What does this fold into?
Amino acid sequence: RVPVIEGSNHDEWRLFVAQQELVSGALTPAQYPGAIASTLRIPLAQANALAIFVYPLAAYPSPSVALGALGTDAIFACNARTASGLLSQFAPTFAYEFNDPNAPQRFLPPVSFPSGAYHASELQYLFDLQTPEPSPGFTPDQQALAATMVQYWTNFAKRGDPNGAEPPTWQGYTVASDQHQSLVPAGVAPITTFGADHKCNFWVPLLP
It folds into this structure.
């Protein structure tokens, strides 16, 4: 029962969709229901229902982005929100969502869709990662976001609380507030729309 920073990235699953595209080509509309079934390990009939009623292709710029949203919500985002709710009952909990839609892609070559705030994309904002390729440059806004995130994590390591004199205030998570700190280049700020953004009432309803 110790303080916790816990969160997820806005487009977690796009990294895995991109990996699959590099192996077998860009996802087509006809392949979309089958990809849902494979991702969630559910029958094709259920996948078809999700494709029609919950994540319709018309709502997304491509089947790959649609599948990325579904995988993010079902596998990462809503489960992270539930974890924050459980943890907050026993210890100070600080929930975040990393959401730089233009985070540099460090792991894969380009694919047919933007990778967004993909899985592990936040690490380059916190740590000096050594990779075989030269580190991609940050814009001034991304540099400011990285500085804020490093300050949060450093404060937390020192005191069990990410807050300090400089970064925007980060309120502790409670089920009642359902508040996440949105880590975005344009300006870090709290949000209360995380559950709606990721369809969590469908996937994992918030704890009472």
About this structure: Residues 85 and 175 are 5 Å apart (CA to CA). The two ends are 21 Å apart (CA to CA). Helices lie at 14-24, 32-40, 44-54, 63-88, 123-126, 140-159, 194-197, 200-203.
